[in-house]
């Protein structure tokens, strides 16, 4: 009868756990990003707590307000820049429809191998501009619907980001108590190896955060240099936007491609070509070199495990997989390593 009572209690506890997971399902993404942000910036929280002696709530509120300002200002700037770009693109389309393409640059014919083809294509587009717009007009509605759907997704992402910034306050304030609770729970599950796996997960997440933030800072700096060389106005704002967009996959082209298109509209074709090459091979290319290096730096895991975790996690879980993928592979690799290490002494000392 006692065993049946214990089994019933365990079933009830599992049902309660499942119900709790079901209730929290809509907030998993916001909770995840709040936890990652709090963990990555925890040294700042410790510093503020020391400056405000023992006042953890005040330090958490001050740091959360700082994050809100840091995120809200670029978003407002992004909204104004998008509105300006939309007006510029609309005016450019109307000008092209009425007057056709601008005069073909003389250097276009001198491009090796494809110069004649580029010149013929330019002249054909200029001659058939009205017919081209008539052909494209039926697809404008579909493009508008697609942009509307993307705008809804972006709005949902902004709301999720706002919720994450609210939740990060509670992670700052109650972080030590949450860490102690997780440590005690892992000790009940795996015993003395709890500290090892906590350090493993913490180190993996920290390296991934350093890789993501470091790569974004490098891309933002390189983008600002490219915009300054090309003579694009608003270099600082565009550099900050590149930093923000670098946090999402394939984000930087959303900044430098409109800038190159603006240079084309100003008939600065040479600088537009330079910016396109700079964006493709320097701004976007640094992501493939710097991020894996920073993520694998200082860890004991093989580089191939980290790379597979990063890219496989992105494909499997989206942007959250950038952190989940390496963490899961790191824990699995460590578990297998511990299992093999325990099996080796037994195989070397067989029983008589």
From TrEMBL:
Transmembrane intervals: 60-80, 152-172, 225-248, 268-290, 302-335
Descriptive protein name: AI-2E family transporter
PROSITE patterns referenced in this protein's UniProt entry, alphabetically: PROKAR_LIPOPROTEIN
UniProt-annotated location(s): Cell membrane
Lineage: Bacteria, Pseudomonadati, Pseudomonadota, Gammaproteobacteria, Pseudomonadales
InterPro entries, per database record: AI-2E-like
Organism: Serpens gallinarum
Membrane topology designation: Multi-pass membrane protein
Position of the signal peptide: none
Pfam families according to UniProt: AI-2E_transport
């Amino acid at each position: 009868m006692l065993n049946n009572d214990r089994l019933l209690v365990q079933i009830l506890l599992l049902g309660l756990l499942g119900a709790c997971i079901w209730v929290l399902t809509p907030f998993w993404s916001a909770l995840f990003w709040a936890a990652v942000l709090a963990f990555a910036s925890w040294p700042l929280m410790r510093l503020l707590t020391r400056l405000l002696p023992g006042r953890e709530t005040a330090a958490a509120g001050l740091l959360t307000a700082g994050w809100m300002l840091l995120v809200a200002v670029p978003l407002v700037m992004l909204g104004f820049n998008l509105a300006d770009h939309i007006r510029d693109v609309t005016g450019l389309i109307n000008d092209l429809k009425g007057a056709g393409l601008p005069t073909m640059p003389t250097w276009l014919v001198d491009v090796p191998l494809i110069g004649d083809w580029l010149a013929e294509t330019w002249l054909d587009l200029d001659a058939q501009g009205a017919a081209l717009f008539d052909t494209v007009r039926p697809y404008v509605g579909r493009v508008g619907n697609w942009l509307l759907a993307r705008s809804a997704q972006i709005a949902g992402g902004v709301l999720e980001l706002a919720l994450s910034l609210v939740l990060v306050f509670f992670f700052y304030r109650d972080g030590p108590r949450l860490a102690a609770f997780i440590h005690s729970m892992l000790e009940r599950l795996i015993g003395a190896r709890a500290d090892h796996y906590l350090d493993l997960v913490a180190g993996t997440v920290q390296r991934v955060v350093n890789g993501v933030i470091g790569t974004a800072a490098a891309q933002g700096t390189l983008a600002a240099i490219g915009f300054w060389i090309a003579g694009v106005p608003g270099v600082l704002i565009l550099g900050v936007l590149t930093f923000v967009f670098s946090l999402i996959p394939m984000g930087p082209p959303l900044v430098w491609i409109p800038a190159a298109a603006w240079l084309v509209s100003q008939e600065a074709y040479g600088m537009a070509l330079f910016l396109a090459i700079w964006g493709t091979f320097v701004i976007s290319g640094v992501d493939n070199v710097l991020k894996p290096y920073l993520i694998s730096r200082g860890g004991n895991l093989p580089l191939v495990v980290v790379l597979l975790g990063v890219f496989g996690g992105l494909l499997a879980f989206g942007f959250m997989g950038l952190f989940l993928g390496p963490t899961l592979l790191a824990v699995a690799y460590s578990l297998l390593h511990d299992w093999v290490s325990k099996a080796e002494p037994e195989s070397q000392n067989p029983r008589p």
